[in-house]
Amino acid sequence: MRDKSSATAVGAITAGALGVLGFSLSLPATRVAVQGLDPWFVAFGRAMVAAVLAAGYLWFTRAPRPTRDQWRRLTIVALGVVAGFPLFTSLALTSETASHGAVVVTLLPATTAVLAVLRAGERPPPAFWLAGGAGLLAVLTFLVASGTVHGALSVPDLHLLAAVALCGLGYAEGGALARELGGARTICWALLVALPVTAPLTGFAAVTRPPQAGVTIWLAFAYLSVVSMFLAFFAWYAGLARGGIARVGQLQLAQPILTLLWSALLLGERLAAPAVVAALAVLACVVLTQRTRAGRPAGTS
After folding, report:
1. Among residues 120, 110, 125, 117, which one has the least CA distance to residue 294?
2. With left for phi above 0 and alpha for psi between -120 and 50, is residue 212 left, alpha or beta?
3. What is the pLDDT along the chain (301 residues), one digit of tens a residue?
């Protein structure tokens, strides 16, 4: 029994880590895409492309239709991760750097953990909150020391805060729903739920500002559509469902560091020396959060 539990935990962490790796390039790719494409087209076009892939996957696997209650919950998932996060990050990154976006995304693991308590009934132990809080502090300290945090709260910051709040909701609800539907079907059905909205908005954005972009910009858009909006969620929701939303969600403490590294390598954005120290500190905190015993959802025996 213990071996089986350990295998499940390792599988959940591996799946969650793959999801984080896929998401870590989302902000840099968005930053590239919105330089040549309308932010509304980037936000909803990626969801529309992913919905086509989702329809193919659901048809090929002959997935059963969700129940009425599951449709309602899928709407919440769609609001958070299909519409909310892509739209508000696209709007923010038209004028801000991907590195700056990593500052606010630092709040996402904590937001996800709180919403896991509210939406999924999880009860992480005090040690979990201490480790997660230490990881958050380590990332914020690095961001301040590296000069990434600067200036007063701006409109792009408000967009990023809205993106984090909605994404945390979509993660918590989607992670709980993935226990019933599976990670892949959860994101696939959520993409189809949103399609009646994302398709018209994509068309309107394309007509209003016809896309005129080079190969690099279209490659960034393709990454957002295929990986960030589709494949990464297969692993991410599977990890949340198997290992606990609050617990596995803390793997995202490493995402800002990865995003900053991608931004430096691909976009030439500045990266200061304290990154290595911060990365090691965050890694230690992530390990601690994964070693805490997950609390049972409320109402379980």
Report:
1. 125
2. beta
3. 455 555 566 788 888 889 999 998 998 999 999 999 999 999 999 999 999 999 999 999 999 999 999 999 999 999 999 999 999 999 988 887 777 677 667 777 777 877 877 766 767 677 766 766 776 676 666 656 655 555 556 787 788 888 988 998 999 899 999 999 999 999 999 999 999 999 999 999 999 988 887 899 999 999 999 999 999 999 999 998 888 887 787 788 778 778 877 877 887 766 555 555 665 566 666 666 656 554 444 443 3
- CA 44 to chain CA centroid, Å, is 16
| Exposed / middle / buried, residue 117 (Cβ in 10 Å: 0-12, 13-18, 19+) | middle
253 vs 255: CA distance, rounded Å: 6
Helix (H, G, I), strand (E, B) or coil at 273: coil
The two structure tokens encoding residue 293: 């015993």
Neighbours of 58 (CB within 10 A): 18
pTM score over 0.90: no
The answer to whether the beta carbons of residues 179 and 241 sit under 8 Å apart is yes
Q: Tokens 């200036």 belong to which residue? A: 151
Q: From CA 277, how far away is CA 49, in angstroms rounded?
A: 39
